[in-house]
Design goal:
This protein is α/β, with parallel strands linked by helices. It has one domain (3-182): Rossmann fold (3-Layer(aba) Sandwich), CATH 3.40.50.1220. It has helices at 24-27, 32-37, 39-53, 60-67, 80-84, 121-129, 147-158, 170-182; strands at 3-7, 72-74, 88-90, 136-140, 162-166. The protein has a five-stranded parallel beta sheet with strand order 3-2-1-4-5, with helices on both faces. α4 runs parallel beside α8 and α6 runs parallel beside α7 (147-158).
Length: 191
C-alpha cells in the first residue's frame, strides 16, 4: 500500500501562515501581468510574503508526514515540509532567495504565478497516475478552488485509490489518520 499526500494552505494555517484565500491583497498580485506591469510593487509583495513566512515552524502534520515517510505533492510555497525534513514536489515553486528579491518579477517558478507555466503539474499527474486500488491519497488542507486540486483528486479516485480528506485541524488529525492507516488490524483482516 502506498500513501501519497497532497497538501494545500490548510496544513500550514496552524503554523501561523494565512491562506491566499484569506489574503486577497496578496493573491490579486500573484499574476504574471501584474509582475510585468508593476515590478517594484510585485517585488515588495514577494518580500513581505517571504518575511511573513520566515519565522513559521512546521506543525505536527508536517512532522507526521516526515516520520511516516509519506511522499508529498504540495501547492504550498512556505517551505514548511522542507523544514520538517521531507522532500516534496512543489507544484507552485518556491519563494525567491534573499539575493533574488530585487529581481523577483523576472523569476519563473519562484513562485509560479497565474499566467505562468507550472512545470511540476505534469510530474504530479504521473505520480498520482501510479496509484492503485488499496493505495491512499491523503488530501490535507486543500480547497476545491484550483483546477489542479480537483483534477488530482479525480485522478486518484479513477485509479481506485482511497481519498481521505483532512480540511481542518491538520496539526492534530494527520498523525491520527496515519496511525490508523499503518496500524495492523486488530482482527487480522482488512475492512
Amino acid at each position: 500500500m502506498l500513501v501519497l499526500a497532497f497538501t494545500g494552505a490548510g496544513i500550514s494555517k496552524q503554523s501561523g501562515i494565512s491562506t491566499f484565500m484569506e489574503r486577497p491583497d496578496v493573491r490579486e498580485k500573484l499574476f504574471r501581468d501584474y509582475a510585468n506591469a508593476h515590478p517594484q510593487e510585485y517585488n515588495k509583495v514577494i518580500k513581505e510574503l517571504k518575511d511573513s513566512m520566515k519565522d513559521a515552524l512546521p506543525n505536527d502534520a508536517h512532522y507526521a508526514l516526515k516520520e511516516y515517510r509519506v511522499p508529498i505533492i504540495t501547492m504550498n510555497i512556505d517551505g514548511l515540509h522542507e523544514k520538517a525534513g521531507s522532500e516534496v514536489l512543489a507544484l507552485h515553486g518556491t519563494l525567491p532567495n534573499d539575493d533574488e528579491l530585487d529581481k523577483a518579477y523576472l523569476l519563473y517558478n519562484k513562485p509560479v504565478l497565474y499566467g505562468d507555466p507550472a512545470p511540476n503539474y505534469e510530474k504530479a499527474y504521473r505520480i498520482v497516475a501510479r496509484l492503485q486500488p488499496g493505495d491512499v491519497f491523503l488530501v490535507i488542507g486543500c480547497s476545491y478552488h484550483t483546477a489542479i486540486a480537483c483534477a488530482l483528486r479525480d485522478l486518484a479516485r479513477s485509479r481506485g485509490a482511497k481519498v481521505i480528506e483532512i480540511n481542518d485541524d491538520a496539526a492534530h488529525k494527520v498523525r491520527k489518520v496515519l496511525e490508523e492507516i499503518y496500524q495492523p488490524r486488530e482482527h487480522g483482516y482488512d475492512d
